[in-house]
Predict the 3D structure of the following.
Amino acid sequence: MKGFRFGSTQGAFYIMPGQDGWEATYGNETLGEFSCPEQAVDEVARGLSCTHLSEGDTSTLEIPEKLCDWEIVHV
């Protein structure tokens, strides 16, 4: 299986296969469950609440909105 990774200035974000679709994570924090990886990337890029970030929100990190701009990782 494959997943996706984006390394921001604050650390890595992952979009990985989950139990009911795709899961977005940062560190040990789950940011949400999504029906497809494209939806997960879109939501992370627009801004999701993240308690582990100093800004508290992913929208300030210039995360790419297109899945093709994320690194493919194999799980």
Observations:
- The mean pLDDT is 86.
- The chain has one domain: 2-74.
- The beta strands are 2-8, 11-18, 21-26, 29-34, 71-74.
